[in-house]
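# nightly structure sweep
# worker-07 picked up a monomer target from the shared queue
# config: single-sequence mode, recycle default, output format = structure tokens
# input follows
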Amino acid sequence: MSDENLNGSVPATEAQPQGPIFNVEKLYVKDLSFEAPNAPQVFNEQGQPDLQMKLNQKVQRLAEAAFEVSLSITLTCTINGKTAYLAEVEQAGVFGLGGMEPQIMDAMLGIQCPNLLYPYASAAVSQLITNGGFPPFPMQPINFDALYGETLRQRAEQLAQGGENALEHAEAAGNA
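# output follows
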């Protein structure tokens, strides 16, 4: 049997997307960990908890228009110098991006994707802490626009330093 439709109509060709595309293909927890190394004694500790949060983001190209973005949050709580708990979540997503300038795509991966992942990561951390027997910890919103701006500033600084190092090596080679 041929690829023609039986009613005699012309088969439709697959439409190519026009303009930029941004799709959320899949959201998932990539890694999840909770430790309470000093339990149950830590539940009797009196004092102000000291909370330290670390945030990390990774981007990996999976295909021409597919990227995995992962957002890692590590929250460490200590009381009187003793670790009460350590909660770690790596929330990830597969995103389809295409048809845009490289700078726009970079900004989408650095701002929009983490903005979409953060509520899921935050909820997972909160659930881990509560299930661990500790009071809930409401995580504050994060300004990924500002973080991305800082990343761009650091990249520019590294490029400038790289250019200076290249110039220094060239001058050293010329003086030899």
